[in-house]
Amino acid sequence: MKLKPKHIQISSGGPYVAILNLKDCEDNDIHRGDRIQIYSKSKSVVAIVDTTMDDSFVAQGEIGFTYEISKKLRVTNPVSVEPMGKPYSLKHIRKKLDGSKLTKKEIFEIISDIVNNKLSEVEIAYFAAAGYVRKFSFEETVALTEAMVNTGSILNLNSKIVLDKHCIGGVAGNRTTMLIVPILASLGFVVPKTSSRSITSPAGTADTMEVLANVALDLKTVKRVVEKTNGCIVWGGALSLAPADDAIIRVEHPLAIDAVGQMIASVLAKKKSVSSTHVLIDVPYGRGSKVSDLRKAKKLAELFVAVGKRIGLKIKVVFTAGKEPVGNGIGPALEARDVLYVLMNHENQPLDLREKALMLAGNLIELATRKKNGYRLAKKALDSGLAYRKMIEIIKAQGKKVTRPQEITLSEDYFDAKVSNSGIISYLNNRLISELALTAGAPKDKRAGIYLFKHTKQTIKKGETLFRVYAENPKKLAFAKEFYERNKKHFIELK
Fold first, then answer.
1. Residue 110 belongs to what H/E stretch?
2. What is the pLDDT of residue 272?
3. Which of 141, 349, 407, 433 could form a disulfide with 342 if both were Cys (CB 3.0 to 4.6 A apart)?
4. Are 140 and 102 in contact (CB under 8 A)?
5. Given 3.30.420.40, 3.90.1170.30, 3.30.870.10, 1.10.287.70, which CATH number is that of 414-494?
6. Catalytic site includes residue 207
7. Among 17, 10, 60, 13, which Cα is nearest to 35's?
8. Per-residue confidence (pLDDT) for residue 221, from 0 to 100
9. pLDDT at position 6 over 80
């Protein structure tokens, strides 16, 4: 049938969704949730049907295009619409849910259908859940990684050695990437860092870097930035690098699930897509982090190294302490301020963040050069101001917003969390601190978050402030206060 496009300024958030008048659906035996193929000259898309009875919204003879379809087709003339069957990949997802292993071909078909918007978010969620509950085998993880790479764009760089780094997360703050990139780039290494927005934390690297510069750059611009400065810190979701990963992450977010095989494929596919050759993986472990003990951390490391080897990456895994937040700021603006303090060697710099960044940068230098002076080279770049000057270059190349910590404003609405007893701090609850920052509005509200005044092994006195909670919205501040009071005794342990 032929229908006239009506461009509706509504975003589906990912999948292609077309809205049909219920009368057209009844005449053509089409139902809500069915798939249709929409043709316009040389372009076509597969869309999921939604329906309306409101003729003023989408009349009979019209087809409502959500933002994603409008952007893809860009047409005003009538389009051809044909019903379609369900994608064959749904059978593969059902197979995984039943506990069977998927073949390389089956995984590629699933990932290809995700990239081409042929699966709804509900169907993608079933795939993510299947991987979380049924687990991906080693071969499935390799196939998933390769499929993600092969269905996306590639950033081709003219360099034999391309460095990259990733932390599996689970630790509040911990914004080492934004220090490592300028340190390495200032030493002449090529470091095209694509980062994610927050999945389960108060800030992802992209959320924090966005306080300082633009992060939603296209592939051509990213290449130009890297060629000019040796590095970048950008949001991977804007680049179509392993795009299936972003769709899967989106459905994982509500329940904060992160299947091991999916996580490894996600990380390594993004690294391969930017032509990385040497990759450092930071695996924090310990109470309150994603990985509870060293045995599990080592098992995860073996998988990273093995999968990396199969796709041509040299990988080194570093195990780090994950039992407390790293740095003082938690939330985009607060973490960005910490980063600038360290780069400027400011008296307010959090020394734990500084030392961890230097250690990781040193390890990555040694992985690439096979020499043993990595830490010293990294420290020299930081102490001399070379790394800070390089960060300013990168910020300007990406679209400058802020280059100095005093330019970062924090919300005027906050409350102080004071302790009821005195003692030496033996434990800070990563999970609760992150949840509190999220409740306060981070990362969506850039100025929301938490500033830590104390860390473990430090003495705190009764009535002293442990941390300050910022919120841009008074209601969110009230929610944060309520959350803190309800969980107050679990945030900290003293000895």
1. helix 104-115
2. 96
3. 349
4. yes
5. 3.90.1170.30
6. no
7. 17
8. 97
9. yes
> Over the stretch 236-273, which tens digit does the pLDDT of each residue have?
888 888 888 888 888 887 777 778 999 999 999 999 99
Residue in 332, 148, 323 with CA at minimum distance from that of residue 249: 148
* pLDDT for the residue numbered 193: 97
Q: Are 176 and 282 in contact (CB under 8 A)?
A: yes
Tell me the per-residue pLDDT of 409-468, one tens digit each, with 9 for 90 and over.
999 999 999 999 999 999 999 999 999 999 999 999 999 999 999 999 999 999 999 999
Selecting among 258, 338, 352, 413, the annotated active-site residue is 258
Every domain of the chain and the residues it spans: 2-84, 163-405, 414-494
Degrees to nearest 5, angle at CA 494 with 490 and 495: 145
Q: pLDDT tens digits, residue range 30-44? A: 999 899 999 988 888
pTM over 0.85: yes
Distance CA 159, CA 61 (A): 54
CATH of span 2-84? 2.40.40.20
What gap in Å lies between CA 219 and CA 20, rounded to an integer? 35
Which architecture does CATH list for 163-405?
A: 3-Layer(aba) Sandwich (3.40)
